[in-house]
Design brief:
Blueprint: E1 2-7, H1 13-26, E2 32-37, H2 48-60, E3 68-78, H3 81-93, E4 99-103, H4 111-116, E5 119-122, H5 130-149
Parallel strand pairs: 1-2, 1-4, 3-4, 3-5
Helix pairs in contact: 1-5, 3-5
Length: 155
């Protein structure tokens, strides 16, 4: 089971199509749940910690203690596709059957959420929109399981 908690809705139609595509492909490997959390409006009156804490409260409602939490964070470890596949394999071998990826909003994730996550990953040194990050992450999860199952998707 993989859950992806993402702050912010996917608005772009073409990104929604891509997300739906990988959700369908992933069905043969795992159960996937995508949870979109309402994003706080960024205004001049609201400070970043207040915004991050408000989003963290919404995220915390979906975190289960038995789940391996993985934060997507700019300061996280950057893995190649084989390393990402190994991350799944090693943690499955350790007895983890539920993985939760948490993708923050425009300001990232609060320290409270980062502290709950035993793994912090970066998708790339490049900056992507949060909508694009959802799509890229789902593609990489599909690629990881394709690598683990030995299919021809990863060439």
């Amino acid at each position: 089971m993989v859950k992806l908690i993402a702050v912010g809705k996917t608005k772009e139609g073409w990104i929604k199509l891509g997300i739906n595509h990988y959700q369908k492909l992933l069905k043969k490997y795992l159960k996937l749940e995508l949870i979109e959390i309402r994003e706080e409006k960024i205004t001049k009156l609201e400070c970043a910690p207040h915004i991050l804490n408000a989003e963290a409260k919404r995220i915390l409602k979906h975190i289960e203690k038995s789940t391996l939490c993985i934060a997507l964070d700019i300061k996280g470890e950057c893995l190649d596709s084989f390393g990402f596949a190994r991350l799944f394999e090693e943690n499955i071998n350790r007895g983890h059957s539920q993985f939760m990826f948490i993708l923050g909003g425009a300001l990232g994730l609060s320290q409270k959420i980062l502290n709950l996550c035993s793994i912090k990953l970066s998708l790339s040194p490049l900056t992507f929109t949060h909508q694009m990050s959802k799509l890229i992450l789902l593609e990489q999860i599909y690629r990881a399981f394709s690598i683990l199952k030995g299919t021809e998707y990863h060439k």
